[in-house]
Amino acid sequence: MIKKLDRLRKFELLRTLAAVGLALAIAFILILTTSEQPIEAIRAFALGPISKFRYFGNVIELMIPLLFTGLAVSVMFSANQFNLISEGAFFVGALGSSWIATNFLLPAGVHPVVGILVAGLIGAVVATIPAILKLKWNADVLVSSLMLNYILMFLGFYFLNYHLRDPQAGDMASFKFPDSAKLMRILPGTRVHIGLILAILAVVLVYLFMFKTRWGYEIRMVGKNENFARYSGMNVFRVIIVSQMVGGFLAGLGGGIEMLGMYTRFKYKTLPGFGWDGVIVAILAKNNPALVPVGAFFLAYLRIGADIMSRSTDVSSQLVGIIQGVVIILVAAEHFMSKRKNRIIYEESMADLSAAKEAK
Amino acid sequence: MSSIIDIIGTSEFWYSVIRVTTPILFAALGALISDSAGVINIALEGSMLWSAFAGVVFSAWFDSAWIGLLAAIIIGALVGLMLAYFALNLKTDIILSAIALNLMAAGGTVFLLFVVSNDRGISSSLDSRVLPKLFTGLADKVPFIGPVIFGHNVLTYVAFILVFATWFFMFKTPMGLRLRAVGENFHAAESVGISVKKIQYQALVLSGIMAGLGGAFMSMGYVSWFSQNMTAGRGFIALAAKAMGGVSPIGTMIASLFFGFASALANYEAEISVPAEFVKMIPYIFTIVGLVVYASKKQSDVKRARQKQAEAATASKGGK
After folding, report:
1. Could you say which of B89, B104, B295 has the minimum Cβ distance to residue A325?
2. Who among B111, B275, B287 is closest to A318 (CB)?
3. What does each of the 360 residues of chain A score in pLDDT, given as a tens digit?
4. Which of A291, B80, B89, B189 could make a disulfide contact with B204, Cβ separation 3.0–4.6 Å?
5. Cα B164 to Cα B181: distance, rounded to the nearest angstrom
6. ipTM of the complex in this document
7. Contact list, A287 vs chain B (CB under 8 Å)
8. Chain A residues closer than 8 Å to B106 by CB
């Protein structure tokens, strides 16, 4: 039995790699057919991020928000709720931390901690709204969370315009953050900040929460079969609310950490898109927190590679959108390479059967 | 407050309500058709975006708005076909497939725009065409109503005609019946020999075509260019309009007009003495409220029906 699971897990890994490989192959074909300098473009895309220490630093910097939203979406999707609020939660989290940073005078060690905690709490609160609408009135989570994202964006801009806006900035942006509120840089020569350590910590804690605690078990059970969970006595309402709160907290935290780690003032002009990226990361990681870093690294590498490519050659960085789409579909497709999967299951079962016969 | 009433009193306002409703209505009818067959189409947003792009590119290449329209319809159908293939053949979760298709549309259109025209994000160098406006001469003939309903883009009239065509298709044709049967209970439909997969394929392609028309309107009517992510969530608003409108095309039309009204009001932000951010929020708040009202009404309807059934059951038992 254990051997069979092992082979299946290996197969899943192989399948994901095949999906990624196929998507990259499509990308290379697109580059070859549309670019006048295809070799340079592919080299910049594939090797650009490791060509300079600073570029690799960019990959790590980009990983930090992706880790948080990836974890957030993993937890929320584990309860089988297609809640896309992580986008809005990240945004209001970033705004909340900017508010703490610019409107309060706190000592250096405490200031960022309060900032990111407030960010997380705001995220947790907004993430429960779609879940409550669903549980109380049966409103579709996907649609209501999408709409709520836009509402949060406009609410955020209102708050920014009337409470945080620096009239001297010339543009719609908040006052500058004081040094006491900023997160410490930890890698000289890059902008990598202490948020990386917090993100790694979050990966470990969320993994333990999902797989080693009763809460996590209940969330996964509700996600797999809500009715079964209800009949075995779980409080499904509470479990779903908790899962969405944890997810929203993580997304909000990510927003706060990104803001205080990477920026000198709040200047988003639209939703930054990290929530959608979190969906991609969660799909790549199959909602497993332990695999979220792999998904986040892949996506960050892809983005930075595409950026370097579009700066140095004639290929647009939007190529990444196509790669992402292909990877998601193939990774999520049950029937992609399913013949091979069925053969593994068949072979292993036959082996089990003959082993059982011999034992007799 | 009085300024809002002033705005609502003008025929220009109602003209713009119909204009902004058009793309939402197309996509909402698409959502209605696919939902009726039991397959939710969240890729409407992506279909619209691809079609808006195709309309601009092909109308510029062939110097004809009609060829642009044809290309938009074909591309819309193709995206529907892709979603059907991923969801029904490869057994990818239909929501994830649609999210993937939307991502591909957002990136792919900008990528290809750069390839075909060297434009970054907006089709400024493509000399694209727009579809004609109809009945412009009649606008002055009827007071108030004339300027509201005449002089719209040809696709606006198509959208409202399609409301009735969809109603006829769904409730008066054998194929519409099969479609609804699959959506109601696909086991039952299968047992009487209907091919569920085939019907769902057709439904997704049809809904892709509807979204395609909406996309064509966006880039060849609403405005005369393509720009990055120009559909701006209309495909999602359409899903909400469908949810509010229930199972009837007329209800879907009313719900779409409702969103059109809210969006049109948001366009007048400058003249309303409320912070602009709140005015812009209106369509989205309406969507959520509408969604809750519709969903809770449906839920209580189901409860009531169940209660009646239970009462009837106990009554017949008592009779024995």
Report:
1. B104
2. B111
3. 455 567 777 887 888 888 888 888 988 898 888 888 888 888 888 888 998 899 999 999 999 999 999 999 999 999 888 889 999 999 999 999 999 988 888 888 888 899 999 999 999 999 999 999 988 888 888 888 988 998 999 999 999 988 888 888 778 888 888 888 888 888 888 889 989 999 999 999 999 999 999 999 999 988 888 888 888 888 888 999 999 999 999 999 999 999 999 998 898 888 888 998 999 899 888 889 999 999 999 889 988 998 898 888 888 888 888 888 888 888 877 667 777 777 877 887 788 888 888 877
4. B80
5. 20
6. 0.80
7. none
8. 318, 321
